Amino acid sequence: MPTVAETMLSTLKANGVRRIYGVAGDSLNGLTDAVRKDGTVTWLPVRHEETAAFAAGAEAEMTGNLAVCAGSCGPGNLHLVNGLYDANRNRVPVLAIAAHIPGAEIGSNYFQETHPAELFREASVFCEMVSTPAQMPRLLEIAMRTAVERRGVAVLVMPGEVALAEANSTRVALIQRSRSAILPHAEDLARAATLLNDARKVTILAGAGVAGAHARVMEAAELLGAPVVHAMRGKEHIEYDNPYDVGMTGLLGFASGFRAMDSADAILLLGTDFPYQQFYPQKAKIIQVDMRGEQLGRRTRIDVGLLGTVADTLEVLAPLLERKTDRTHLQDAQKHYRKTREKLDDLAVPSRKGAQIHPQFVARTLDRLADEDAVFLADVGSPTVWAARYLTMNGKRRLLGSFNHGSMANSIPQAIGVQASNPGRQVVTLSGDGGLAMLMGDLLTLVQCRLPVKIVVFNNSSLNFVELEMKAAGFVTFATDLSNPNFADVATALGIRGFRVENSDDLAAALDDALDHDGPALIDVVTARQELSMPPSITAAQAKGFALYAMRTVFSGKGDELLDLAATNWRRLF
Fold it and tell me: Could you check whether the bond before residue 137 is cis, i.e. omega within 30 degrees of 0?
């Protein structure tokens, strides 16, 4: 009779799982030995379990299929928590196997004892402990089905001896996601149509929920004469082939997206959980479409909530809409977007020789040179700003990040999962120097597993976005300095092709060589520390805060920082 772990592996294989991300440990011996004996499922050995969880989440987001990670008992599986939080908030199906101490020792304050069933509860949609072999494979099937149907993280906590025990059953279940159309009630649709038809100026805000609904959103925008604003996770799904696109709003967005929202008298929210209340207009009528009822009205007050998937809801809503002949609102938003886009593009220029490189220029050059179907992974902070503003989506490219959870150090771990599950595709990170350093050990995973990820480092020797937040709040920057090595030399020492770029004139050639390299490559780009990534609308509090920052900086003896800031951003004035 096979062991519980061997039966688990048979079920995972039957459901399309081809790799498990993790770090080996004695409490995982049952699972890792089952993988060794099987020989068809890959154990992908990362250097930190947080990386394993991020990688599994990224694979699940790319493929839409269940991905698996594992951690040994105590500290090993606790390291999974941050990456699992991210995967759960991104609503992707991940199974985490969290090994536990021996069952007989639970409750005795044994070596490495924790309470994983409690600790993982908030980072998952399912979390249960397997106490006896008799619970398997049923609990595995329930966990997998919950992860797939609810699109979230399922955690199975299992003492090591249970995984090694003889299985009571060798049943293998196939878990296939059920398909259904979720549609709002006819009366709710009629109310929404009335509000939209009566409004003079309608704007659409599109989030990740518009995935697969591009044509329907375009039809609605045409009928309503509506500019389309997108949230960060909606960018890859709606920005391309979109004559109604007017950019992003929010902290990472730019002025045209904010204005198109602020000037509307009706807003149609499509599949978005955009969190920043201050960027929603106060007086407009708001109609929200979402397949999860609990999200309706969570971020802003709404006039009509429509429970349904975006594509299916727009299909039944469209016949109720009257085509607006007055296109003034759309035309004004498009004109403003063109001007905003020109201003943003004017910032993406080379620096003078010897000056630190503008990060906008790095992102724009990367956008030009990368493959048509490249997958980009952006670290949280300023790399996400530059990705949002300068990477072009075309319906083939993907853009992933920790856009809901907002964790540092996400890009390289996520790139591992993307590259492992898409071996022939170009995978490129936009990594912050702080994020790179935080989980730098997993550069070794790229080498060991022969994953040809390309890492573009925005090296400004600081926690750059944190500094910007401090300035906006009126604080003198503090505790944000990073004393960095030459990351290209570090990469070379690890067996990764390293490039160091200190002048704008050298950037394109280095990126070209790195992207063409048959293996992992790292491009360490020295970028301007004082570059301002301005929000689309500057509040009075932010202006006051920045003035306080300037005054306090002078008084604290750091006036040279203000001079550097002025020198870096002078081109914004012309």
Answer: yes
- Helices marked H in 186-245: 186-198, 214-224, 235-238
State both tokens at 359: 């990060």
Nearest to 40 by CA among 22, 58, 14: 14
d(CA 4, CA 336): 62
Tell the residue number behind the tokens 């009205």, with chain if given. Answer: 297
Q: What is the pLDDT of residues 344-394, one digit of tens each?
A: 999 999 999 889 999 999 999 999 999 999 999 999 999 999 999 999 999
Active site residues: 49, 111-112, 380, 465
- For residue 29, give the H/E element and its range: helix 29-38
Position 184 confidence tier, pLDDT thresholds 50, 70, 90: very high
**What contacts 136, CB < 8 A, 6 or more positions away?**
4, 7, 8, 130, 162, 167, 168, 169
In whole angstroms, what is the distance from residue 497 CA to residue 493 CA? Answer: 9
N- to C-terminal Cα distance for the chain?
Answer: 76
pLDDT digits (tens, 9 = 90+) for 469-512: 777 777 877 898 999 999 999 999 999 999 999 999 999 999 99
pLDDT in tens, 121-159: 999 999 999 999 999 999 999 999 999 999 999 999 999
Which of 72, 63, 117, 118 shows the shortest CA–CA distance to 94?
63
CB atoms within 10 A of CB 186: 10
- Interstrand relation of 304-307 and 375-378 (parallel, antiparallel or unpaired): unpaired
The answer, yes or no, to whether residue 418 has pLDDT greater than 60, is yes
- Check: pTM over 0.85? Answer yes or no: yes
Model confidence at 160, in pLDDT bands (50, 70, 90)?
A: very high
How far is the C-alpha of 57 from the C-alpha of 361, rounded, in Å? 30
Strand order in the sheet with 245-248: 245-248, 228-230, 202-206, 266-270, 285-290, 304-307
Q: Angle CA(244)–CA(273)–CA(329) in degrees, nearest 5? A: 25
